[in-house]
Amino acid sequence: MTETTTQTAAAPVKRSRWEALKNSKAGVWCRSLASDYKEACKEAVLGAWEKPLKATVYVTLLGGASARFYTSPDRSSLEAALLERSNQLGLLSPWIRNATSDGHVQTLVKVRNEGRLRHANLGLLSLVYCGNYDLDCALYEARCSNLSTPWLKFPERLLDVGFAGRWWILDSKMQDFDVNEDEYKHLPAHMQATSPPSVQEVERNEKLHKESWLPLSMEEEEKKDEQMVNTKEEVVSEENQAEQLQEEQTAN
């Protein structure tokens, strides 16, 4: 009996695979990493509870940066916007196109057809600039890094800036794309610029436009007829008085 007990005590204890994995180096490292993240999240929650304004600012900035990163326009959006703007200008006569809008779109189309249109995604925004050569060009000037354009001249080659799902320079150039300002250069200075109507003028014009579509009642037509008859009678009486005065003057 005593020998059996000693043999059982001396036998090694079998551990499961899960326990072996937990006690291994990888398991210890994962547990320490999880505990570090747990403490960090706990401190973040306590800090946000103690300073809610600071936490709100941080969350707002992080959410705004994430939204801007998600809505940053890509090369395909530029192609679609350029095609749409070209179609808008193509529907207009060359005599009424805005020279600034037409020139900017023509420049983008020309650079794109030449293969020199470059797109750089910087995360929060995208940049479109003009390259010197096509990417498939095998000339020595196009491949040599020592002959490339320096970065100090990059603002001169910048064509557009994409931010928050829009191409800002293209949209600004397309304002009043159907107004040719060259047609108004011969006019005086005070007639070249027009001021928008006031709120009262707009409301009055809208009211008159709505009233013009209303059907006329019989009473209104009768009143108008009476007014016309009265005006005619007044005109006739004035003419008779004038004739009588002329006759009296001739008789005297």
Please characterize this protein's 3D structure.
Residues 201-212, 224-235 have a biased composition (Basic and acidic residues). One of its GO terms (cellular component) is TIM22 mitochondrial import inner membrane insertion complex. Residues 242-252 have a biased composition (Low complexity). The protein has 252 residues and is an alpha+beta fold. Among the domains are: 22-71; 75-187, no CATH class. The protein is 63% helix and 7% strand. The protein is built from 12 helices and 4 strands; from the N terminus they run H-H-H-H-H-H-E-E-H-H-E-E-H-H-H-H. It has helices at residues 2-10, 17-23, 25-50, 52-70, 75-90, 99-113, 140-143, 154-157, 168-173, 189-192, 199-212, 218-251; strands spanning 117-121, 126-130, 158-163, 166-167. The protein has a 4-stranded antiparallel β-sheet. A hairpin with a 2-residue loop joins strand 3 and strand 4. Helix 3 (25-50) packs across helix 4 (52-70) and helix 5 (75-90) crosses helix 6 (99-113). It is elongated and about 140 Å long.
